[in-house]
Amino acid sequence: MQLFAFGVNHHTAPLAVREQVTFHATNLEEALRDLVNREPVREAAIISTCNRTEVYCSTPEPERAIDWLARFHHLKSQSLEPFLYMLPRERAVAHAFRVASGLDSMVLGEPQILGQMKDAVKSAEHAGTLGTVLHKLFQSTFSVAKEVRTQTEIGANSVSMAAAAVKVGELIYASIAEQNVLFIGAGEMIELCAAHFAAKRPRRMTFANRTLERGEGLALRYDGQAITLNDMSEQLAMHDIVVSCTASQLPILGKGMIERAIKVRRHRPMLMIDLAVPRDVEVEVAELDDVFLYSVDDLGKIVQEGLDTRQAAVAQAEAIISASVHDFMHWFETRELVPTIRALRDQAERMRRHEFERAAKLLAKGEDPQKVLEQLSHALTNKFLHAPTHALNSAEATERDSLLAALARLYQVNPPE
């Protein structure tokens, strides 16, 4: 059974590819059970964010799990292969540690990925696909991430995607305080963006969501108003900045809807920031003259401020990760010895039980206890030492030295010169 990780991320695949293999929260547990039930996979966990989709699993046939990912998303394996990374054993462990520590993020040192990994572990637990190996891996991962963030400056001066969204707004408009901002969705990213925009005191903040209740909660917090997605097309033209991040599998803002809004606005420019994967805004919207459309990848190019300070901490973080990978692999490889250790103990237990029963019968017959105990101890000693003694006596000359060294270490004996 092999520990294995594979997937795509912002380093290896463009947004157009990443959005084809995302997992929604509503189907993630179903996907995990499907993987474990259909393929030779004993354990599995899936991390799916705007920047990455990764599968961690315990399996003897990694290629079957890779084929499953393509098949689950109705894709051909060949279309994914150029963008996939495949990480066996210690490389998978090191990758998990680096991801959780923020070393593999679009924003170096960003902390949000750690929470996303914890959510992925909860989903695997609920689906019943998180076994001993992955449980140990992720507990170690969270400990390493905490140590990296505590012992290094990896998170110093980090510019979040939400802060980057505000920076884009300030590039387009002289003052955000004069603009109306529409937030579409009510998840964690929208909450972060709303907090950053609220600090700039925009003229109005509107929250559009599928359920009005979630939107009203944010509207109350930021003194804004809430609408449903059905009301969005009518109110879109009244907003200068649109920030969208929903879990929709299809675009919710089409080119036609945006064209109508721009016409009502008399071609005043509109900034649209699409943080969703899959995307909420149709790609063709970028062709409109009066629309500035930014995707999650576009914002990634803006989040480089303070990079020098964080870059200096990478070497420290990598050293912590390297030592932790060594510790985890020692634990993992020791687990591979468990069947042998169990068989050895079972054999010893059978010998002990046989001699104990024999001694008990002799005592029941009235034999001298001292003599019975003496016979018991001799019999156990002879049985325990028979196999190694026989192996040593029958060993070929070429293997005798290594066998002697092994026996000396196992039994902690130092034979005289």
Name the descriptors.
10 strands; 3 domains; Beta Polymerase, domain 2; 54% helix; alpha/beta; single chain; 417 residues; 13% strand; four-stranded antiparallel sheet; Rossmann fold; six-stranded parallel sheet
What does this structure look like?
The protein is α/β, with parallel strands linked by helices. The chain is 54% helix and 13% strand. The strands form 2 sheets. Strands 7-6-5-8-9-10 form a 6-stranded parallel beta sheet. Strands 2-3-1-4 form a 4-stranded antiparallel beta sheet, with helices on both faces. Helix 5 (89-100) packs across helix 15 and helix 7 (132-151) runs antiparallel to helix 15. It is elongated. The two termini are 44 Å apart. The mean pLDDT is 91.
Tell me briefly what this model is.
With 417 residues, the chain is an alpha/beta fold. The chain has helices at 15-18, 28-38, 62-72, 77-80, 89-100, 112-127, 132-151, 161-172, 188-198, 212-221, 232-235, 255-264, 296-300, 307-312, 314-335, 338-364, 369-393, 397-411, and strands at 2-9, 43-48, 52-59, 85-88, 180-184, 204-209, 225-228, 241-244, 270-274, 291-295.
